[in-house]
Each structure stands twice: as C-alpha cells, then as structure tokens.
UniProtKB/TrEMBL annotation:
Designated name of the protein: non-specific serine/threonine protein kinase
Chain residues that bind ATP: 34
Family listed: Belongs to the protein kinase superfamily. NEK Ser/Thr protein kinase family. NIMA subfamily.
Tree of life domain: Eukaryota
Xref: InterPro entries: Kinase-like_dom_sf, NEK_Ser/Thr_kinase_NIMA, Prot_kinase_dom, Protein_kinase_ATP_BS, Ser/Thr_kinase_AS
UniProt keywords, alphabetically: ATP-binding, Kinase, Nucleotide-binding, Serine/threonine-protein kinase, Transferase
C-alpha cells in the first residue's frame, strides 16, 4: 500500500504510467514506484503492466531492473521497482551530444557489455524484450547498467517459433519486425546494434525519418545508415555493429556470443586503462 512509502518527486512517465521516487517507510530503502491508472488502461495495456511484474520476478540478474512486487489501491495499480539513481542511457547520450563530446571506447564497452549480460539472461529465460533502446537502459551511480521496462516483452515457450505483433520503438525495430514473416530473439540483437551505434555516433542509425514511416522502414530493410565517426573507434567495434545490424537474422550473433565478445573488449580496454595508470599514475 502507498501508506508504506514516502513518495516524493516524479522521475518519469510513459504512455499510461507515472514513476515516482519513493522510500519504504520501514527500511528507508529507495524504490521507483510506478503508478498506473486502471480506469485509463485498456485490457491489453493492463495485461502489459502485469506482464512486466511477472517477467521481472522471473529474472535475477544485476543488469536487469529488480521488481519487488505490485499492489492495487483505489483506481490505481502500483509496481515497486529497483531505483536506478543515475538516470538512463538516453539522458547520458543526450548530455554528450549537447556538449559535443564523444564517449571513449572504454566507456562504450563498459556500459555495453553489461547491457549484453542483461539480454543474455533474459534470453536464457526465454524472454524477448522487444523494446531495447537507450531510454530503457537505466544507470546507477555505482556504474551499473540495468535493462528495464519489460512491459512489451513476452515469454517464448520452447514450442514457439516466431512472434508477429508489431510493438516497440520504430528506430530500433529489426527488419523482420516490419514484415509478415515474424521474428525471434535475434530481433533484440538488432536493437543491441542500434544502441552500440548510438553510443558511438550519439544518434540512432536510422534517425531522421520522423515524418515518413515508409522511408524509415526502407532504410531499415536495406540497412542504410551513416558510418560512425572515422578514426575514433576500433575495427572490432565497427565489426560488432555491422554483425548486429545485418538484415538476415541468422547472420547476427546470439545473446551469448554478443556478451562474450563485448566482455572480451571491455576486459581489453580495462587492462589498457590499468597499464596506463600504472605507468603514468593517472
């Protein structure tokens, strides 16, 4: 019940929800309390919200937002979620873009290998996220990146072959998401490629077609996007982007392969950082 929380400022909102910073009275533990107005929700929207609770409770991973439970009060439904105190990746990218500052490659792999770890865990639980984007990657002041907003996710049973509903954010949709053939876990890998590209270029690879959905879908179907800044990043990073942003899903890595590759690159750049610090004391 809300009486168990000290609720303060609003920290976010979605199409049918508001999120508030709150502290549990008994423990002073901080949470993100998501408030849903039941009367303004369709049956499908309410199912989506309840789905988020069920999905999050199935996952125990430091790179996926933890769900502490939910409750109904009056005409509202509340979900108590882990609070990420440093905002989200979209905000960090926006700040860098406004300041004209690119991410170092070490920083990119530091965040990205954690995102891949979260996706690996979701896919291991047969959960397809379907809406991976910077705004759904939450950050903590301790340097953790955590995947959240699983309301559009769904669980694939071992017998399920493909999903066909079109949900998610257009800039991050894989080509097969716009066709009638259906899609599977590799569509999340395409979205990972979009996130990695955006960490390099500070914009979505398919940004710029806000007024023309057909033109956007054609660019996605033909995989047309500007190159990332020249001479700034390694050959391996550029190859990783191209391998994720491949039109044929079968040619993309799976979540385990993506996590392994990203972790190796993160380890490489962390080793270089430690060597530099040892040599120059910085």
């Amino acid at each position: 019940m809300t009486c168990n929380y000290k609720i303060s400022e609003k920290i976010g909102e979605g199409a049918f929800s508001e999120v508030f910073y709150a502290e549990h009275n008994a423990s002073n533990f901080p949470v993100a309390l998501k408030k849903l107005k039941i009367e303004s929700l369709s049956e499908d929207e309410m199912k989506s919200c309840l789905n988020e609770i069920l999905l999050l409770q199935k996952v125990n991973c430091e790179n996926v937002i933890c769900c502490f439970g939910g409750f109904k009060e009056s005409n509202n439904y509340y979900i108590s979620l882990e609070y990420a105190d440093a905002g989200d990746l979209e905000g960090l990218i926006t700040m860098n873009r406004q300041n004209g500052r690119l991410f170092s490659e070490r920083s990119i792999w530091f965040y990205f290998h954690q995102i891949c770890a979260g996706v690996k865990e979701l896919h291991a639980k047969r959960i397809l996220h379907r809406d991976l984007k910077p705004a759904n990657i939450f950050l903590t002041s301790k340097g953790k990146a955590k995947i959240g907003d699983l309301g559009l996710s769904r669980i694939f049973s071992l017998k399920t072959q493909f999903a066909k509903s079109i949900v998610g954010t257009e800039y991050y949709l894989a080509p097969e998401r716009n066709s009638q053939g259906g899609y599977h876990f590799k569509s999340d890998i395409w979205s990972l490629g979009c996130i990695l590209y955006e960490l390099c270029a500070l914009r979505s690879p398919f940004n710029g077609e806000q007024q023309n959905a057909y033109a956007l879908f054609k660019r996605i179907e033909t995989c047309q996007f500007p190159p990332i800044p020249a001479n700034c990043y390694s050959r391996q990073l550029k190859y990783f982007i191209s391998s994720c942003l491949t039109v044929k899903p079968a040619n993309r890595p799976n979540a385990e392969q993506a996590h392994l590759a990203a972790s190796l690159m993160n380890k490489k750049f962390e080793t270089l950082r430690l060597q530099y610090k040892k040599q120059f004391g910085k």
